[in-house]
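Hi U.,

Before I forget, here's the chain from the pilot set. I'm dumping it here mostly so it's searchable later in email.
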Amino acid sequence: MALEDAGNEVDHAFARRDLRGLSFESPFAGATSFLRRRYAHDTGGADLAVLGVPFDAAVTNRPGARFGPRAIREASTLQPGDPPFGWPFDPLSDCAIVDAGDLAFDYADVAAFPARLEARAAGIIGTGAALLSLGGDHSVTLPLMRAHAARHGRLGVVHVDAHSDLWQDDAPARIDHGTFLWKAMQEGITDPARTVQIGIRTAGPSWPGVTQIPARAVHEGGVAAVVARIRAVVGAGPVYLTFDIDALDPAFAPGTGTPVWGGLASWQAAAMLRELAGLNVIGADVVEVSPPYDPAGVTAVAAAHVATDLMCLMLWRRAGGAP
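Structure:
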């Protein structure tokens, strides 16, 4: 990278010449691209693309997750001056990463939204880039899974959440953040035997064959046992990892639509994600960040760190890491 690009003479969100490299810029200035990566609608040549999905028309309680992608990006600007902590490689320097901006859609045409998102996701994946998505409510995961399954086949799922999101929904046109996994199972794009849910702590339906690890089991059994169980369930096949920020206890993530006490601590989530290195994670998202309910921004900070570790998980194998 040229000397002038290493200082504050350019805004890396627009003028970065090399898609690789750390960013030594003031975190309080400039455009808030994810980790100060360059904005690029065309993701050709990138190892990974970040897509914002500012949609929250499917929530059952508090709205505001449409502002999640913007808040996560802003929070992420604290991180790109150093390699992600705890990983034995530096994805920012070793891999080509771009911010593909936010999905463009008509907010008033809710019924058309899923197909719009699926098409955009499929287009990004088709360029060879791995896709990390920033929600948005949890309904966005279903079209993202459809796009990934079309390319990779039936998916294993690591689902980190306070809720099972397996509520039955017999109306195909309905869009609901509590039914996305039920629909994915019904459509056959996910494999129940290779699906594990972590952090569950609300009463709700289950699905035959799906493994559930309640939050209390995480607290009492420890992170190492949870990681071992996840690896045993999902195996070596392609895995989609979806992280609902309400998996964290409200003490660590108050800015979400359906907060539930007794959740994971941020250190537990960090340790779990880093110990999953080598898993065949082909796509991932972090969802349900609702900034209006957290004026201090701690939820967005947590989500930005989650997203960074998801990025590392997806790039680990591309960077030569062992399965």
